[in-house]
Amino acid sequence: MNVLLRHDALAGFDSLIDQLFAPAAAQAAAGTAPRRIRVDVKETPEAYVVHAELAGVKKEAIHVEVEANEVAITADAAPAREAQAGEKWLHVERQAGRAERRFALPAELDAARAEARFADGLLELTLPKKGQAAVRKIEVH
Q: 47 and 125 in contact (C-beta within 8 Å)?
């Protein structure tokens, strides 16, 4: 006797989606995960130029660290939304809190000559490459 079973290929799909997004949703709800700073990195023969998007952050709240070929950018955005008497917030997307980004560049950096400028929510870092050791030819006698 042949037994026919019905197979539902998508039976566990909903629980799979829930499992995939559960960690991110839990972190977002807890508010513990720092936001990731978006950056653009350009290389010139002498340096790397990094543009980091930091809208709504004050210059004093930005911290940049350079060590060897690694760059760390952190920023703390203060909440700017306080409801006045008779007001209520209907929709909030802009987040306050900590934002950070850490990345490595291909060449070692000269931290002593690094420069940072901040204007209109954009941080520009100019990170000179460390000078290469001069190649010296040695004559064999």
A: no
pLDDT number for residue 53? 94
What angle (nearest 5°) sits at the alpha carbon of residue 121, between those of residues 120 and 123?
105
Tokens for 48? 């790397």
CATH number (3.40.50.880, 3.30.565.10, 2.60.40.790, 3.40.47.10) of 37-128 reads 2.60.40.790
Which pLDDT does position 41 carry in this prediction? 96
Q: Which residues contact 120 (CB under 8 A, 6 or more apart)?
A: none
- Which stretch of DSSP H or E encloses residue 25? helix 13-30
What tens digit of pLDDT does each residue of 104-123 get? Answer: 999 999 999 999 999 999 99
What is the DSSP track for 86-136? T---S------EEEEEEEE-SS-B-GGG-EEEEETTEEEEEEEBPPPPPP-
Residue 23 and residue 32 in contact, taking contact as beta carbons nearer than 8 Å: no
